[in-house]
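Let's practice the habit of predicting before peeking. Look at the sequence and jot down your guess about where helices and strands might fall. Then scroll down.
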Amino acid sequence: MVVRRVVNTVFNSCSYIISLGDGSWLVDCGDMDQILPYIDARLQGVLITHGHFDHIYGLNNLLALFPSLPIYTNEAGKKALLSDKLNFSRYHEEAFVLDSADNIKLINDRDCVQLHDNLQAKACFTPGHSPDCVTWVVGDALFTGDSFIPGVKTVTNFPLSDRALAASSENLIRTLAAQRIIYPGHALAD
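Done guessing? Here is the structure:
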């Protein structure tokens, strides 16, 4: 498994390409011009860490190329993908609503998504920053989205954020992070 980070133009959010030799997966979806060179027709699906605009705005462009691509999120994430108010795109230059709800595959806490023969992505719900936050455990990798960015206090001043849940989620992530590499939702400025 090889993980490649793409730093997007919107708020330095990060998308990650997980290459598995005979296929790939995407974690969050921002700037398609930066993502496309690293994926091909073998793209298997997208794992969403949460439905804020800066982590999902490339999805409709991706679905134009891969119309049947599954997008994995929880029920709150589905609502965000389908609402420019909940995903905050209403307050950006261009509102975003996912073109096809049929592509959304709902997951529950601790569900696993089969990525490859003997590799799964385990969904661990880590709400607080947003009610739909999911941390994905993939082998020795931990994709935390905005639930945990090392060295940065979790942002909890959005509508539907919850400081107590964010603290609980951070404790869970710190436990999950033992012996794993953390891939957070944003790149920090040097």
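How did you do? The chain has a mean pLDDT of 95.
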